[in-house]
Amino acid sequence: MLKPSVANTHTIDPLHAGILARLLTLAVLWLALCLPMQSSAAVLEYIPSDPLGRWMDLLIEQGQPLTINDAISRQREGHFARNREAVPKFGIGAKPVWLYMTTENTGAEPAERYLQLEISWLDRIDVYVVHQGEVLKHRIWGDTVRGAPPPVAGLGYVFDLTLPPGESEIFVRVATADPMLLPVRLLDATQLGNLQRQYDYGYGLLYGFLLALLAYNAMLYIGLKERSYLDYVLYVGAFAILNLSYTGHGFAWLWSGNTVWQQYAIPIFMVIIGCLGLRFADGFLNLKEHAPSFHLFVRWLSICGLLGITVTILGQQQSVTVLIAFLFVLVFSTVMVILGVIAIRHGQIFAYYFLAAALSAMFGNTVTALAVWIGLPYSPIAFHAAGWGVVIEGILLALALAYRMRQYQRAQNRAAHLARTDQLTGLLNRRAFLEHALPIWNLSRRNERPLSVMMVDIDHFKKINDTHGHAMGDRALQSVSTVLMEICRNSDIIARWGGEEFVILLPETNGEQATQLGERLRAKIAALRLGTLRSPIRLSASFGIADRTRHESLEQLINEADEWLYRAKQSGRNRVAGNSLMPSR
Fold first, then answer.
1. CA distance 254 to 248
2. In terms of Cα–Cα distance, which of 358, 363, 356, 266 is closest to 313?
3. Helix and strand element counts for the chain (H, E)
4. pLDDT in tens, 122-133
5. Is residue 145 left, alpha or beta, with left meaning phi > 0 and alpha meaning psi from -120 to 50?
6. d(Cα 247, Cα 251) in Å, to the nearest integer?
7. What DSSP designation does 176 have?
């Protein structure tokens, strides 16, 4: 028993007594912190706020449930074994476990302490305080105890204990079909408050991020109607509810008093998360097109997971339900990584983000599953690894969604550009010209501003095609297009009207100015030489110009320019004709 020694103050002077008292206090503290494996009482003033598994003895029930008197007798007979882990862990469907520790209250007054069991999914917890062989207090809690209050959000089950002066014994019996791990702490009010604030900050950060992620992707879905955003919202939302379930926030806030739902909420949402994650991956990676066999596989995997957990719930096999849920999450995490690799092999660049996200989630889910089940020692970091894995996954998947959306928008813009552009010359086509020209026409007419239209036609174009081939005809069209783009202003709208004919809208340009521009263009085109030095091909073009004076519509203006073009052709070609002058060279 760890008790401080009492110095004989009648034979030691006060100075030496003070030094000795300090040395003994340090010795007690050292023993309390460094030698917890000894069978001794824990001095309340020196109990750390860490899990106390190594301070405790344990007994696994065999056969019929033990009463507290049975447990006391077994402890006295030496049947309890010293625990060697800070957080004892017994796996899924374990038999009930008894924990035992002694405490020493060295003060003259009863001490108020709080026994905290962080895990919120335990079915039943019995806590006994025994003093001098008498049971002073018995508290019952758990998610199957009808009428019991929900666990404290984030902290789990917190039992307030009053420990009288001297030595007291604490017996804790825990029974659950879920993974049994027992991080037990004995805290004073200050330590409990500090732990509560620590958890509040951590959970606030986590839930704030998840909420922002949900809102962001929900707004994108509403605006874009892209299925992947909705699937991702459902996936992250299900994870948020799962996290609320296993941290106790769900039982405390959402379904308080519903003990049946609390027993199955965690495994149900574990499977739902897997199914929604597979659905998201299926649509996001377009497995139906790129990997149809895996498209069918993820569908069947989801069906099997839902069917398996439904059957076990209906059969009231809680431990089997939990086992299926854990295995399904591990399989789901692995499959997500495989799907990311497959998508990369199919050349989907955004799949690199997806793969990194899947690896983060798989690592977090695996660490948490093994920490609460079997394979890894429990620690707060491991317990919350799944949550922070999803945080990292959320960031990476948001980047993946954004990258894919940018690709989609680029493809749409490219398709729209191709639909509005003449592929040979790179100029606008007739439809795009009218879309651009109509607003300018309306503004010019409303403000009484000058505006002209120029029609351009390559002379003897059919002869070029027939004599030199269509490839040379294409070169002629491209060469004339280049001249038009080089000479015209940025504000002018140039389009290929059809065949070898072009149209140019000239804002803030009257008929005389348009005619001058036409002459420049005519001379520049006439100077072009195609073909070879031994067999050159000379080009020329005819121009028809009309300015906005008495026209009621853009169509009338274009038709008049086309009539002047016809007159230029009839007058010998390689000419500019318009309503501001007679056809001339």
1. 10
2. 266
3. 17, 20
4. 999 999 999 999
5. beta
6. 9
7. -
